Amino acid sequence: MSNQAGNEFFVRSAERIETLLSDPRPAMSTPSPVLVDALHAAAAAAEVKLMPGSALVPGEPVADSIERLARAAGLQVRQVRLSDQRIGESPVPILALRKPAEGDAREDAPADAVLLTRSGDHWRVAEAAGRWKPGQAGSLALDDFEPTGYLVLPALPDSKLTAKGLLRFGLPQARKDLAAFFAFTLLAGMAVATLPLVTGPLFATIVPEGDFGLLANMMVFFAVLFGANLLTRFAAGIAKLRLDGRIGFFLRAAAIDRAIRIAEGTASTGGDLPPAPIAALSTRSVERWHRGVWGMALSVIAALLVALPNIAVVAATSATGAVVIGGVVVAVILAGGLIARRRVQALLSGLAAPQSWMSTAYEALTMIDTVRATASEGRVFSRWTDGFLSLRHRFLKADRVGAASSALEEAVEGALVLSAIVALALAGGVVAGGASISLVVAAGSIAGAVSAVLGAFGQATMLGLQFRMIHPLLDGVPRPAIDGWTPPPLSGAIECRDLVCRHRAGAPAALDGVSTRIEPGEHIGIAGPSGAGKSTLVKALLGLIPRESGSVTFDGFDLDRLDDRLLRRQIGIVGQGGRLFPGTLFDNISAGAPITMADAWEAAGKAGLEADIKALPLGFGTPVGDTECGFSGGQIQRILLARAFAAKPKILILDEATSALDPALQAHVAWAIDEMDATVISIAHRLETLKACDRILVLDRGRVAESGAYEDLLAGDGLFFELIEAQDAA
Question: The domain containing residue 249 runs over which residues?
């Protein structure tokens, strides 16, 4: 080893030791009392406690502070637009931020946070001055607040989830509605149980004697009883709707959050992601399965609460009747449970198809041009038919088994009334005083409850299918919500040392010992033949793929110790094959960031898109479809560039970002990039587009083959020169 190489090795070793010993954790500041107190109050509304000692990071955006503090407590944050007319009465208040007072232009001015709750046409405001107790605000000027508010919601755990754990989700937030449902259902059952008690005396005494006064009083009593039963059932139904709505509101957001974090965790470990329709169906099926299981359980419990008072009437009237009717009820319920189990087994029998028919249809429709170009319509339809007919056959088999359940439900009432008559016969005939009539009426009421139980069993078939659909969401391990320190504002310095990455275990190294340092504001180009590791290097710098060895630092902070998701918010990325998402043109440029219309126009101008937007009738309000966006390839690239410009990042990564632009637009975009105060990393196959780079890294088989300025590399007669000659010859 030469002296120069030895000195360089010594310097790098000393730097690593110094970084390790210094432990440059971002400093924490004194917490903003109002913001943290507001988060405590919002978490309490979701029946969760915020972590004690919560603090803010200097320079951290308010949105990032709210999300970080909420995530640490096992909560998630959902941003909402206060001006959106769809915002109605939500189960939790909206955390809103008042705009700074006029004349207070300090960047470090503390955020004045309040909690807003919609109540009909009015808003209720809770703030620190009122000890976070909501007060009536009447008409509220939403213009006094920042346009973006925050909903603090419970989240699913960062681990594998069992069915029992999923069913417990949302119960702390909905226990009042659950208690109300049970109370009103029991009252309804007691009201129904009164009917057989008065029916006996009615037909035994009042009707035979022709006492019209008592008969009129009984009619009034029955009317009151009917009204009480109707009101209690209505109240129980409202409580059930509130229960479903509250838990569904929480679970829908939590399931989507978990699905995204599972995908992040799978991608970060190099695993295969599930097809998009399967992932979307899983998130939707979670809510349906949760609601279905709880609905079935509540239906059974409600039936028991209604039946218990009638069973007490039967027991008080005739012990023999209670034994006979009880035996019939148990036999019917056991038979119904057995039939439901066989239906589930029939539906879930056989091996699951390797690819669902829904995924096949989705892929075929999204790639319809390719299917038509290769004349593959028949083959695609055959693949779809195989999966669909297999599932259809299982449904038909389950329906044949379910026919017995329908017959059993139809026979329940007759069987119980007949059992009451048999019980009277066994007891020695008709009991005096109208007790026999009470027994028959009570048996009819019990039959209604048993029919409700059998109906609940009938839902088990779909619940079994839905449970299979949500298995990936339960068994998947999501990426932790808090995965490192909050990164400080970046200056743009990046360094990687001895990076080794593989696309999969046992595969050749896609990056093999790559080391480089990028200074703040430097424009770096990355070139090389196909498969050299250019895009892999960018993914490794962003923490999107696992590293076998080596390190990546931003401003001296180790990427492994930082929350790379918060880090990527300070990085603008325009990658290959970028796509737009459904929404408006403004939504695609803002990408959820709190930017103004002026910011969007500025970003569009830098991307050379201003004239195109002005030519559109709806301008920034132009809708973007799910599969057909209505823009050309060059326009899509400029929209993606405008999205990156709008965020004003300190690091900008461009992966073939201008390949569809003409020379004039390329020059305009290059000028806009040069005007940015940011570190720029450009990947390009057309090497002439890298002339403006301060330095170019030439990769070959995962290694840095050359490094230097464009002209120096061109004169070096190395790999870069060969690539230029190959392009010129082509």
Answer: 163-475
